[in-house]
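The material for today's practical consists of a large collection of protein records. There is nothing in a record beyond a sequence line and a structure line. As an example, a complete record with its sequence and its structure tokens follows:
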Amino acid sequence: MSETGHARAKRHWCSGAKCYGSTVFEESSSPSAAAVPNGTRAGILISVGAALTVFAVAHHPTVAGRPPAEAIVEIVRLAQMDRLVHGSLIVILGGLLYGFTVFSLRRGLHRETVVAALIAYAVGILSSIGAAVIDGFITPDVAAHYAGASQENIFVAARLLSYGGSAIQELTKLGMSAMSLAMLLWSASLMRTPGALRYTGILGCFAALIPIGVLITQSHITPSSLGVIVLAQGIWYIAIAALLIRKLV
């Protein structure tokens, strides 16, 4: 393979007792190795992102079972931690999207299941980032604005926070559903290849079914149910990271 992405091919022909040869250049149907992003870095990023996501969800601040006025005070008190956790989560999600984009490029975008998986995963990441922005930044700002307000304004704040909570729930459900679909599609592609890739694909199918099961059986996502989902995803993420680091994809 030449540096320009062309393949060298030897052609021979004979005339009488003599043979002649020439080197010709043919257009390559696949990108050169140099054109594909480094899989080791992407694998490390995915593995670190998987661990940090579980850690961030485990330290997610919660405010529940309080009257509106008390809940607003508590949200304001936890605002700094809220911003730190959700800001970190947004960065982690961006890193995971980069890692799985590299994974998709190395698997080959000529595979329709890989392209569909990457699109679904991007939708999931963007939905999850939307939920994190509302939960970690907009909600504390609303609470801070209405802290110490009159009872009438507290009622308005409670309605706004309720709408925000509904948006967080729906965006989180969309994000987890889209990511699970992406895992199934990537896994379906991996299962067509023998060896470690096939086993990783089988693992991915089981890991994707856990979030789907949680979403079907629970109408409301709690920090504990979200923890189960990200743990199942994280196990598969580590398996994908191993494939990339070992250069099996």
